[in-house]
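Hi P.,

Sorry for the delay on this. The queue was packed all week, but I finally got your sequence through. Input first:
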Amino acid sequence: MSEAILEVNGLTKVFGTKKSQHKAVDNISFRLEQGECLGIIGESGSGKSTTAHMIAGLLKPCSGEIDYKGRYLQMIFQNPIRSFSPRMNILDSLCEGLLYQSDLPRKEIRKKALEAMDMVKLPRDYARRYRSQLSGGECQRAAIARALMIHPDLLICDEVTSALDVSIQAEIMQLLYRLKQSMGISLLFISHDIALVSGISDRVAVMHDGKIVETGDTMALIENPKQDYTKELIASVLPVYGEKEKIMER
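Then the structure:
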């Protein structure tokens, strides 16, 4: 077994008051290996995004442990347009974090931003554009470029393609896969779409009602699911793709 970059043990999150509580995440545990992509799938309300937000430090767990062994992690969100200020151009948005968090000269930071744009295949002449001048797919590429500015060891991708057209979804997935392969970045990929997750993930964890109900190697889980809920998720995409094997080709 390779070294884990992330270990989650007994993670729990409860919302509400003592009189009316909702256990969004219920005592889940998993690990993510260095350079691996773990897909977390489940329907809306299953607890997968709450899990992602706790790992990213945006929500405080009620109990449990998150042991992140990397130096930096970044999170990419579902709505790329909302993640950019309407008052800042793309270049300034990419540079903003490092301008406040590092001692690098402004010129060097701008150079890094342009290089990050190159990595995600966003034309450099888009640097002076604003979010309203970019498509959803272009904004998501810019969001990925911004995440790469600090050279993270882990990218948390929370429904990053759900707001995009199918053709653009494929482009973003290919980009993330290429970055994983070329940079050795670990990915935590959150989605309701098991077909989409299967195309990039080494392993899959299935969440339902706040619990992880099944986990395993992606192809093995798709070909031989154990839990009824997992079977239902797979069956829901079979009419679209025709047969199990086509899930892996998306």
